[in-house]
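Anyone opening a protein record will find just a pair of labelled lines. The record below illustrates this layout.
***
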Amino acid sequence: MLYTIGDLHLSFSADKSMDAFGGAWTGYIQKLRSGFSELTGEDVCVLCGDITWAMSLEEALEDFRFIDALPGRKIILKGNHDYWWSTAAKAKRFFAENGISTIDILHNNCFFYKDAAICGTRGWFYTENTGSAHDAKVMAREIGRLEASLKAAGDCGKKICFLHYPPIFYKYICREMIELMHAHGVTDCWYGHIHGAGHAYAVTGERDGIRYHMVSADFIDFKPKLVME
Protein backbone atom coordinates (compact mmCIF):
# COMPACT_ATOMS: atom_id res chain seq x y z
CA MET A 1 0.00 0.00 0.00
CA LEU A 2 1.05 3.62 -0.58
CA TYR A 3 0.95 6.02 2.36
CA THR A 4 2.06 9.57 3.13
CA ILE A 5 2.76 11.84 6.10
CA GLY A 6 4.50 15.19 6.46
CA ASP A 7 6.51 17.11 9.02
CA LEU A 8 8.09 14.49 11.27
CA HIS A 9 10.40 17.21 12.68
CA LEU A 10 12.78 14.66 14.17
CA SER A 11 15.46 15.85 16.56
CA PHE A 12 17.44 12.98 18.05
CA SER A 13 20.66 15.02 17.88
CA ALA A 14 19.59 18.63 17.33
CA ASP A 15 17.91 19.16 20.74
CA LYS A 16 14.78 20.74 19.24
CA SER A 17 12.17 18.21 20.28
CA MET A 18 8.64 19.11 19.25
CA ASP A 19 7.53 17.89 22.68
CA ALA A 20 8.30 21.45 23.83
CA PHE A 21 5.21 22.67 21.96
CA GLY A 22 2.94 20.40 24.00
CA GLY A 23 -0.55 19.55 22.85
CA ALA A 24 -0.62 17.07 19.99
CA TRP A 25 3.19 17.03 19.85
CA THR A 26 3.58 15.57 23.33
CA GLY A 27 5.13 12.11 22.95
CA TYR A 28 5.23 12.46 19.16
CA ILE A 29 8.11 10.00 18.67
CA GLN A 30 6.14 7.20 20.26
CA LYS A 31 3.07 8.33 18.30
CA LEU A 32 5.05 8.02 15.07
CA ARG A 33 6.29 4.54 16.02
CA SER A 34 2.72 3.52 16.76
CA GLY A 35 1.37 5.08 13.57
CA PHE A 36 3.94 3.36 11.37
CA SER A 37 3.44 0.02 13.14
CA GLU A 38 0.46 -0.69 10.89
CA LEU A 39 2.68 -0.59 7.79
CA THR A 40 4.54 -3.61 6.47
CA GLY A 41 7.85 -4.06 4.70
CA GLU A 42 5.99 -4.13 1.37
CA ASP A 43 4.44 -0.68 1.85
CA VAL A 44 5.71 2.69 0.62
CA CYS A 45 5.38 5.98 2.52
CA VAL A 46 6.08 9.43 1.06
CA LEU A 47 7.40 11.88 3.68
CA CYS A 48 6.30 15.39 2.64
CA GLY A 49 9.22 17.42 3.95
CA ASP A 50 10.46 18.85 7.26
CA ILE A 51 12.06 15.52 8.01
CA THR A 52 14.54 16.66 10.68
CA TRP A 53 15.74 19.81 12.46
CA ALA A 54 19.37 18.79 11.91
CA MET A 55 21.66 21.31 10.22
CA SER A 56 23.80 18.71 8.45
CA LEU A 57 23.60 15.16 7.20
CA GLU A 58 25.96 14.06 9.97
CA GLU A 59 23.77 15.62 12.63
CA ALA A 60 20.71 14.00 11.03
CA LEU A 61 22.14 10.47 11.13
CA GLU A 62 20.13 9.26 14.13
CA ASP A 63 16.96 10.77 12.64
CA PHE A 64 17.51 8.88 9.39
CA ARG A 65 18.28 5.70 11.32
CA PHE A 66 14.92 6.12 13.07
CA ILE A 67 13.17 6.50 9.70
CA ASP A 68 15.11 3.59 8.21
CA ALA A 69 13.96 1.33 11.07
CA LEU A 70 10.30 2.11 10.44
CA PRO A 71 8.42 -0.46 8.31
CA GLY A 72 8.43 -0.13 4.54
CA ARG A 73 10.17 1.94 1.92
CA LYS A 74 10.28 5.71 2.45
CA ILE A 75 10.42 8.39 -0.26
CA ILE A 76 11.38 11.82 1.07
CA LEU A 77 11.10 15.31 -0.33
CA LYS A 78 12.49 18.60 0.95
CA GLY A 79 10.70 20.89 3.41
CA ASN A 80 11.50 24.46 4.40
CA HIS A 81 13.19 23.31 7.64
CA ASP A 82 15.36 20.63 6.05
CA TYR A 83 18.57 22.62 6.49
CA TRP A 84 20.65 19.45 6.20
CA TRP A 85 19.72 19.18 2.52
CA SER A 86 22.53 19.94 0.07
CA THR A 87 22.18 17.70 -2.98
CA ALA A 88 20.33 14.47 -3.59
CA ALA A 89 23.59 12.84 -4.67
CA LYS A 90 25.30 13.66 -1.35
CA ALA A 91 22.32 12.37 0.62
CA LYS A 92 22.23 9.10 -1.35
CA ARG A 93 25.97 8.62 -0.80
CA PHE A 94 25.55 9.37 2.92
CA PHE A 95 22.72 6.83 3.20
CA ALA A 96 24.80 4.16 1.45
CA GLU A 97 27.84 4.84 3.66
CA ASN A 98 25.74 4.48 6.80
CA GLY A 99 23.73 1.41 5.84
CA ILE A 100 20.45 3.29 5.40
CA SER A 101 18.65 1.24 2.79
CA THR A 102 14.94 2.10 2.86
CA ILE A 103 15.01 5.83 1.96
CA ASP A 104 14.78 7.28 -1.56
CA ILE A 105 14.77 10.96 -2.57
CA LEU A 106 12.10 12.68 -4.67
CA HIS A 107 13.87 15.60 -6.38
CA ASN A 108 13.59 16.36 -10.13
CA ASN A 109 12.47 12.76 -10.64
CA CYS A 110 9.57 10.43 -9.97
CA PHE A 111 8.92 6.96 -8.61
CA PHE A 112 6.33 4.40 -9.61
CA TYR A 113 3.96 2.49 -7.39
CA LYS A 114 1.87 -0.06 -9.27
CA ASP A 115 0.09 1.96 -12.01
CA ALA A 116 0.76 5.37 -10.41
CA ALA A 117 3.62 7.86 -10.65
CA ILE A 118 4.78 9.53 -7.45
CA CYS A 119 5.73 13.10 -8.36
CA GLY A 120 6.51 16.21 -6.35
CA THR A 121 8.74 18.95 -4.97
CA ARG A 122 8.94 21.28 -1.98
CA GLY A 123 6.88 24.18 -3.34
CA TRP A 124 6.90 27.70 -1.91
CA PHE A 125 4.65 30.55 -0.76
CA TYR A 126 4.84 33.52 -3.14
CA THR A 127 2.59 36.29 -4.42
CA GLU A 128 3.57 39.16 -6.69
CA ASN A 129 2.07 41.65 -4.22
CA THR A 130 4.02 40.56 -1.14
CA GLY A 131 6.87 38.34 -2.36
CA SER A 132 10.47 39.45 -2.86
CA ALA A 133 12.65 38.95 -5.92
CA HIS A 134 14.29 36.07 -4.02
CA ASP A 135 10.88 34.45 -3.42
CA ALA A 136 10.09 34.75 -7.12
CA LYS A 137 13.32 32.94 -8.04
CA VAL A 138 12.67 30.18 -5.51
CA MET A 139 9.13 29.71 -6.80
CA ALA A 140 10.35 29.56 -10.41
CA ARG A 141 12.82 26.82 -9.44
CA GLU A 142 10.13 24.87 -7.61
CA ILE A 143 7.78 25.07 -10.59
CA GLY A 144 10.61 23.80 -12.77
CA ARG A 145 11.28 20.92 -10.39
CA LEU A 146 7.64 19.92 -10.30
CA GLU A 147 7.50 20.02 -14.10
CA ALA A 148 10.63 17.84 -14.31
CA SER A 149 9.07 15.36 -11.90
CA LEU A 150 5.80 15.22 -13.81
CA LYS A 151 7.60 14.84 -17.14
CA ALA A 152 9.68 12.00 -15.68
CA ALA A 153 6.40 10.11 -15.25
CA GLY A 154 6.05 9.99 -19.05
CA ASP A 155 2.68 8.78 -20.28
CA CYS A 156 1.70 7.22 -16.94
CA GLY A 157 -2.05 7.70 -16.69
CA LYS A 158 -2.15 8.23 -12.91
CA LYS A 159 0.10 10.93 -11.50
CA ILE A 160 -0.03 11.74 -7.78
CA CYS A 161 1.55 14.98 -6.57
CA PHE A 162 3.28 15.36 -3.19
CA LEU A 163 4.39 18.78 -1.95
CA HIS A 164 5.59 20.30 1.28
CA TYR A 165 3.92 23.70 0.87
CA PRO A 166 0.22 23.75 0.00
CA PRO A 167 -0.45 25.18 -3.48
CA ILE A 168 -3.72 26.54 -2.10
CA PHE A 169 -4.20 27.78 1.47
CA TYR A 170 -6.89 30.11 2.87
CA LYS A 171 -6.86 33.01 0.34
CA TYR A 172 -3.53 32.02 -1.22
CA ILE A 173 -3.48 30.26 -4.60
CA CYS A 174 -0.36 29.26 -6.56
CA ARG A 175 -1.92 29.24 -10.00
CA GLU A 176 1.28 28.20 -11.78
CA MET A 177 1.57 24.96 -9.83
CA ILE A 178 -2.12 24.22 -10.07
CA GLU A 179 -2.11 24.81 -13.83
CA LEU A 180 0.93 22.52 -14.13
CA MET A 181 -0.87 19.77 -12.24
CA HIS A 182 -3.93 20.20 -14.45
CA ALA A 183 -1.77 20.03 -17.58
CA HIS A 184 -0.37 16.67 -16.47
CA GLY A 185 -3.66 15.18 -15.35
CA VAL A 186 -2.98 15.23 -11.60
CA THR A 187 -6.17 14.59 -9.65
CA ASP A 188 -4.77 14.32 -6.10
CA CYS A 189 -2.29 16.58 -4.29
CA TRP A 190 -0.95 15.75 -0.83
CA TYR A 191 0.88 18.37 1.25
CA GLY A 192 2.06 19.28 4.77
CA HIS A 193 3.68 22.37 6.34
CA ILE A 194 0.60 23.67 8.16
CA HIS A 195 0.41 23.34 11.95
CA GLY A 196 -1.62 24.38 14.95
CA ALA A 197 -4.15 27.14 14.36
CA GLY A 198 -3.36 26.99 10.63
CA HIS A 199 -5.21 23.67 10.40
CA ALA A 200 -8.49 25.58 10.33
CA TYR A 201 -7.47 27.29 7.07
CA ALA A 202 -6.07 24.24 5.28
CA VAL A 203 -7.82 23.37 2.05
CA THR A 204 -9.00 19.78 1.80
CA GLY A 205 -11.33 18.16 -0.69
CA GLU A 206 -11.91 18.85 -4.37
CA ARG A 207 -11.20 22.22 -5.97
CA ASP A 208 -11.50 22.58 -9.75
CA GLY A 209 -10.80 18.93 -10.48
CA ILE A 210 -7.97 18.35 -7.99
CA ARG A 211 -8.47 16.74 -4.58
CA TYR A 212 -6.30 18.26 -1.85
CA HIS A 213 -5.16 16.34 1.22
CA MET A 214 -3.34 17.88 4.21
CA VAL A 215 -1.04 15.41 5.98
CA SER A 216 1.06 17.34 8.48
CA ALA A 217 1.82 14.81 11.21
CA ASP A 218 -0.04 16.71 13.94
CA PHE A 219 -3.10 17.03 11.67
CA ILE A 220 -3.40 13.27 11.06
CA ASP A 221 -2.45 12.18 14.59
CA PHE A 222 1.03 10.99 13.50
CA LYS A 223 -0.40 8.06 11.55
CA PRO A 224 0.51 7.78 7.83
CA LYS A 225 -2.47 8.36 5.56
CA LEU A 226 -3.43 5.77 2.98
CA VAL A 227 -3.05 7.10 -0.57
CA MET A 228 -3.82 3.94 -2.54
CA GLU A 229 -3.82 0.18 -2.05
Summary: The first helix runs from residue 28 to 36. The helical segments are 28-36, 61-69, 88-97, 133-152, 175-183. The longest strand covers residues 116-121.
